Amino acid sequence: MGIRLAGAGFERFEILEQAGGVGGTWYHNRYPGCGCDVPSQLYSFSFELKRDWSRPYAPQPEILAYLEHCAAKYGLLPHCRFGDAVRRARWDEAAAHWTLELASGRTLDADVVVSAIGMFNEIVIPDIPGLDSFAGACFHSSRWRPDHDLSGETVGVIGSAASAVQLVPEIVKQAGHVQLFQRTANWVAPRQEDPYTQEQLEHFRSDPTAAPALRQQIFDSFGGPGIFEGLRADMEVACRASMRVVEDPALRARLLPDHPWGCKRPLLSNA
């Protein structure tokens, strides 16, 4: 929105951001192994394609760097107000404008307000009895504490969805023991994650048609409406094959979903 406003000649606009920088979910989420499960070639603005993603599914630092690049290139940073959340928005019918009350105590009058708060920006901590008196370290994956050393520690991870399939394989390399608490089993499919070779990256950089062509190829491969139904049988076979590494049949049965593939967001992981 900011880029389009600036491109249309608007100069009097402010981007109010409660975080300390641009990036949204890619600013907040910095846990080990954090990355995107959407193909990298699709994960950039159509007017600012990144040709040289390092791998088919980009890691968090690379995505954040791309978004910071976009904000700087298109001159948005002078319009950004970081660390100042909107607490209240009030419409004044007589004056025909909005008054925004900010966390800093500042107020802002605006003719137009665009809500672009995204999703999942309010973390949810489960109501676990005794959590308030727990003496150990406790933090949400989207507010990861890089200063806390997990070496040798016993770690409990609550949840087994998109973030868990990325962070658990990383922290088991460091922690003494990891316990994963699962409510709902999820389908987990293999992910193509080998980095692009230097030859491939040079091809993307030197040939202006290469990255857009790959982007279109990936987009077309999704097939539009009904794609999940078409892929379901093959994907369930692939997911079940991946589960063979779990030798205990009782445990393997508890890890297999009781819903068809595609009814909930499928996960990607080779770990």
The amount of beta strand, in percent, is 5-15%
Strand order of the largest sheet: 3-4-5
Mean pLDDT: 92
Can you summarize the main beta sheet? Answer: 3 strands, antiparallel
What is the 3D form?
A: globular
- Summing up helix and strand content along with how strands pair, one would put the structural category as alpha/beta
CATH topology description of the domain at 2-110: FAD/NAD(P)-binding domain
Radius of gyration: 22 Å
Task: Give the count of helical stretches.
Answer: 8
Q: List low-pLDDT spans.
A: none
Helix content: 25-40%
- Rounded to the nearest angstrom, the distance between the terminal CA atoms is 38 Å
> Secondary-structure element sequence?
HEHHEEEEEHEEHHHHE
CATH homologous superfamily title of the domain at 2-110: FAD/NAD(P)-binding domain
Describe this structure in words.
With 271 residues, the chain is of the alpha/beta class. The chain has a domain at 2-110: FAD/NAD(P)-binding domain, CATH 3.50.50. Helices cover 29% and strands 14% of the residues. It contains 8 helices and 9 strands. The strands form 4 sheets. A 3-stranded antiparallel β-sheet has the order 3-4-5, with no helix packed on it. Strand 4 and strand 5 form a beta hairpin. The radius of gyration is 22 Å and the shape is globular. The two termini are 38 Å apart.
